[in-house]
Amino acid sequence: MLFAESRMPFCLVNGLHKKKKKLIAIIILIIAVLITAFASLFLGSSDMSFSEGVGALFKTGDSNMIRIIWNIRLPRILAALIAGAGLSVSGLIMQTDLSNPMASPSTLGVSNAAVFGANLSIIAFAGGFLETGNNVKSFTAGVNPFSTSLIAFLFSTLSIILILLLCRIRSFNKEVVVLAGIAVGAIWTAATTVLQFYATDVGISAAVIWNFGDLGRATYTTDLIMAVVVLFGAVYFTLSSWKLNALLSGDAAAHSMGVNVNRLRALSMLLASLITAVCVSFLGIIGFIGIIGPHIIKRLIGHDHRFSIPGSMLTGSLVLLLADTFSRTAGKGSALPVGAITSLLGAPFFVAIIFSKRGTGHYD
Amino acid sequence: MIEIKGLSFRYSRFAREVLSGVDLRLNDGEIGILLGKNGSGKTTLFRNILGINRPSSGAILFNGKDITKLSRREKARLIAYVPQHIHFGELSVYDSIMMGRISYFGLSAGEHDMAVVDRIINEMGLSSISDRNAEELSGGEKQKVAIARALAQEPKMLIFDEPTGNLDIANEQLIIREAKKLSREKGISILSSLHDPNEALSLGDRFFFLKNGKVAFTGDSGVFSEETIKEVFDADVTITEISGRKVILKNDLQVKENKK
User: Fold this and answer.
1) What global pTM score does this model have?
2) Rounded to whole angstroms, how far apart are CA atoms B102 and B72?
């Protein structure tokens, strides 16, 4: 009852007695993420003992172990934390923006565009800008993952701009946005099919392998780029928490409370899509994190964005980290693509949402 | 005083006019009721007043000042809205009411915002449910919380879209009482749409009958006549008086005694 009558002059803590549970949930999640991240440093397909791992963390002992910890596992764990947080919060924002529990970071067709970009890069340019390959030699010698990511990102951004322009012509009405996303996404998928039709077997397999979300591609540079974009988005979303809450009351009500609904929706969708574009371009398709993360947190602590934004970021990090650690440890010597694991988890989750008794916010 | 002069609206240059030349005037503390068939333009008129849609021509003046030129925040502090379908996104009652203060605090609530919300909660007798999930309340309670949220905007005018549409009789009466109290005690003007003419009569001071985007009839309760209802709703009714109050009976429901 310590907090029962507290009314402190800050939005995060008014009515703190109810908020206490939510804050505790977030603190528990922070601890869980830290423990999982630490534990997963010492888990993997190499036979590294815990003491060897700790030594390697402090850069003492076997140079191979140091390399595994610092060059392989740490960037990968950081990627799981950053991309998990980014994809999950993007999903939450999309679900709020579109009043749709099934909306995901890819609703605007961002992932389809990234896949097309990557396929174009791999199939037509053999992973580089100038090498016109489509032969085995160029795939083995010429693949430049960074340029593939860059082209994937360029097409994702192009797709986002295209959809926002389409919506600007008509309106930022929820239905218009979803339909524009489906239409533009379908174009990228069709274009990818055409591209793959003309590709060699080797080209197709390289492109398909790219599609599997894999955190093993992460480097410190890609982590830093993802972190900057995710952080920027998270700051904007957090500052807009109250306005996003107002959006849950419906467009007209939010408007009457002084919220610029169109601007809020356009900007938040743009940022959510950019976060997704960066993550997908570097790591490939990692499905369902943007649905699992927000839904777990909405069930745990509700939809209030002051809590669900940090909460969904933590849940996303935790789920992706667990999935990736599982993928690294389950397939000894050959890590399963984490995208496959999150999708395997995600499908039953969809069913659970459909059959759940309790709603998760209002959805028209 | 709100004054609407010759307001016309169409969704695009080539679309037909949804509102054409609407004139409306409501004094401070008066309750105006919009009546009309579905599609007659009631919601569109509200959307124009709220600034969601921009009028094609005409003016909306509040105490002589053109409100279409106000910023969103300024307008939110002048006119609040209670929608027909109410949602709070699973926020607590307290936070849902605090949401009405967004146009004042922007980022985070201050002492004054909390004082305003606490006062409204007390005045409206919502203290016992202030911690509850607003989404899980009954229809009448939700409506009350939505009114409280609108009042947190400290507006001069309230717009109600079919406030009793989804309520049982007890809650209908509760909301009508609340609305009357607001206009009489706080001098807030209320513009409401209502589909039931009897409810309209018990709530309103002035009545605006909309037909095909135009105000066909306007006036006090004297404007209600069998001809007016026939003209606007295309429905046959009989108007009678019970205990000195006008009552409108649908002809297919009349008891034989009334026909004599």
Assistant:
1) 0.88
2) 11
